[in-house]
Every structure is written in structure tokens, then in C-alpha cells.
Specification:
The chain is an alpha+beta fold. Helix content is 14%, strand content 34%. It starts with a helix and ends with a strand.
């Protein structure tokens, strides 16, 4: 995987699915609070005036000169839990993000948040 600080430099770049179909634009990186490693990205999707941020796992993601390629299909990502452009992921909504992709979820130490925006 690549360091989170490098991924922040990709803000605004395309996020594409395994077939190269554009999903949207990279908005932010969420790290796993247990290991401080990049875990999810938020991707800006939708139409003018109706944009939202969807979550997509970064496990297995690769970078190319103009895009970040994730290993999840565009339709699956488009149906993922989302937040408003100026919204924040509530700790109580974290399990749904993991469940959408069939990923195991465990809260952080002492029940703390598992994801933190960087």
C-alpha cells in the first residue's frame, strides 16, 4: 500500500474501477485508527447540484499517472454508504460502510472510532 500523505496529493484526481470506468473524484482519505494506514477514500459522485461522497476501500488500490484504481465495481461503489459534501461519517455509521463491501468490522480500542479523516 502507499502512504496516506502521498494519497492526499491525489485529491481531485479520478478514481476508477477495475475496468477503468470513472467512479468519481478523490475527495479525502480515511485511515484505520488501529494502524494509522489508509483504509477508505471518499469519492465525489453524482450530478451538478446533487453531489455526495461515497466510501470505497483502498485495499488493493493502485495508482496510475492520472487515476487511482480501486478493486470494486463502479455500481457497487455508487451504492455505498455516503455523506454530504460537507458531512462527516458518524461513528455509528462505520459498521455499515464495512458491511457494504463484506469487510469485517471491529471498533477501535475501547470502542473508539475505527476511521479517521486525514
Amino acid at each position: 500500500m502507499f502512504p496516506a500523505e502521498n494519497l492526499r496529493d491525489w485529491r481531485g484526481e479520478n478514481v476508477v474501477d477495475p475496468d477503468g470506468d470513472k467512479i468519481g473524484d478523490l475527495e479525502a482519505i480515511y485511515v484505520d485508527t488501529i494502524g494509522d494506514e489508509p483504509a477508505f477514500a471518499t469519492v465525489r459522485v453524482g450530478f451538478i447540484g446533487r453531489h455526495r461522497l461515497v466510501f470505497v476501500p483502498l485495499v488493493g488500490a493502485t495508482v496510475s499517472p492520472k487515476a487511482i484504481r480501486v478493486r470494486y465495481d463502479k455500481k457497487l461503489v455508487g451504492n455505498a454508504p455516503s455523506i454530504d459534501l460537507d458531512g462527516e461519517l458518524a461513528a455509528t455509521d462505520e459498521p455499515a460502510v464495512f458491511a457494504h463491501y463484506g469487510l469485517p468490522y471491529q471498533p477501535g480500542a475501547s470502542g473508539a472510532r475505527r476511521l479517521a479523516r486525514r
